[in-house]
Design brief:
alpha+beta; OB fold (Dihydrolipoamide Acetyltransferase, E2P); five-stranded mixed beta barrel; 7 helices; 17% helix
Length: 451
């Protein structure tokens, strides 16, 4: 070592020889692992090329890096859950950006801050050749899906939601969001085409809820996610359900943020039950109870509403903790009890139809939404144990109005008194006095002193 130092022509004392120098050389040899300088440089160069080659879909936008720097290193140990991450790419990271430049086959997008992304120019072309192409230009804004990060160029890799890759099988990857044309239906699902490549959508992946008539989607274009790509067997499986789930989740969050008691909202009947109906008011299903459907008595909600009906409902109550909403339909209708005092004055003879028989009496519908009660003691001019002994549901009767209470929505009626009043002239008797207290006849006094 001393001779070599002298031959180098350097002035000054040679480096010390001894245990300290030997330990440094030994540590350096162990660190290099027995490799020469050329071999070590070649390995570092190859590793850099490998890291810059494959794009990692889990890398964040510019300005951040994954915590595990070895995700692109094939020699590094696989992190926990790596298989699950590959099967679940971050396809749902929607970002809004503005086009800033167009170069060759790429469109550069400003994502705000220091982040810039690139989108293939082909994704701005319509899938249908019959649709006129709208040229993309700087300044236009779109929504994009984050698909990866190009570390070498410092660019975020983006894709347009619903865009069709104008290429072959090499352009299709699991997790991509594409637009598909429904070409037919069978018992198992839908037959679709993605960029003129035949694909299949299982029936369970068509929508969040079961779709009974798959043929209703024939000829439509739907946005879906690629679930499986098998280039060897030319098998392509797509799903529309995952897209619908994301859309509904976003809509539900928006609806809950603006929901308030007393609001009048449009809704779609999703199902009808014996106790009411469930109505979708924007990703949130509220219950329309049978008692809130109509002012008239509702025995079968299915006669009023059917699944798929679009109606206007009022929000009656909200339970954020239990995620429940109570809705009303009759609240949007005119209250039939308004003006009942004028319509059914005290003592008037009215006609109605028996709607319900109870132990204590019978209910009679006088007008839509207005019912009166005939007590069991007033259903006939004889002793009756139960109203069903003399009345039946649907029977038309005539009764006398005994009392009207609009605030309590109650009207008291009497068949017995009306029958007695109607029978008096027929029997040849005197016309019954008007309703109210009968006048007391004056007593005749004898003449003073007598006869």
């Amino acid at each position: 070592m001393t001779a070599e130092f002298e031959q180098s022509g350097h002035a000054g004392p040679p480096p010390p020889e001894g245990p300290e120098q030997k330990s440094i050389e030994q540590a350096l040899a162990e660190a290099m692992g027995g490799l020469s300088i050329d071999e070590l440089l070649a390995r570092v160069t190859n590793r850099s090329e490998r890291a810059a080659g494959p794009l990692d879909p889990l890398r964040p936008v510019r300005g951040g890096r994954p915590k595990a720097e070895s995700v692109n290193d094939p020699e590094a140990p696989e992190p926990p859950g790596a298989a699950e991450q590959e099967e679940s790419p971050q396809w749902d990271r929607i970002k809004h950006g503005k086009v800033v430049a167009i170069q060759k086959d790429g469109v550069f997008v400003d994502l705000g801050g220091k982040s810039q992304g690139i989108v293939p120019l082909e994704q701005f072309r319509p899938a249908d050749p019959d649709i006129p192409e709208t040229p993309v230009a700087p300044g236009q804004e779109y929504d994009f899906v984050y698909t990866g990060y190009d570390e070498r160029e410092g660019l975020v890799l983006l894709s347009r939601p619903g865009a069709v890759n104008h290429g072959g099988w090499e352009q299709l990857h699991e997790g991509d969001i594409v637009e598909a044309q429904v070409t037919g239906a069978n018992k198992g699902g839908l037959e679709v085409k993605v960029n003129n490549i035949r694909a299949f959508m299982p029936a369970g992946q068509v929508d969040v809820k079961f779709t009974a008539d798959l043929n209703s989607l024939a000829g439509q274009k739907v946005t879906c996610r690629i679930m499986q790509v098998d280039r060897g067997s030319k098998r392509l499986i797509v799903s529309r359900r995952v897209i619908r789930e994301q859309e509904i989740a976003q809509l539900r969050e928006k609806t809950w943020s603006r929901l308030a008691t007393g609001q009048i909202l449009p809704g779609v009947v999703s199902s009808v039950q014996p106790y009411g109906a469930f109505v979708d008011i924007g990703g949130v299903e509220g219950l329309l109870h049978v008692s809130a459907m109509s002012y008239t008595r509702v025995t079968d909600p299915g006669k009023i509403l059917k699944p798929g009906d679009t109606i206007q409902v009022m929000v009656l109550a909200i339970d954020q903790e239990k995620q429940r909403v109570s809705l009303g339909l009759k609240q949007l209708q005119e209250d039939p009890w308004t003006g009942v005092v004028e319509a059914f004055p005290l003592g008037a003879a009215v006609k109605g139809k028996v709607t319900k028989l109870m132990d204590f009496g019978a209910f009679v519908e006088l007008a839509p939404g207005v019912e009166g009660l005939i007590h069991v003691s007033e259903v006939a001019n004889k002793r009756v144990g139960h109203p069903k002994e003399v009345l039946e549901i649907g029977q038309e009767v005539e009764a006398k109005v005994l009392a009207v209470e609009p605030a309590r929505q109650r009207i008291s009626l009497s068949i017995a008194q009306q029958q007695r009043r109607a029978a008096a002239p027929a029997a040849g008797g005197e016309t019954p006095p008007p309703d109210g207290p009968k006048p007391v006849a004056a007593k005749k006094r004898p003449l003073k002193g007598g006869l």
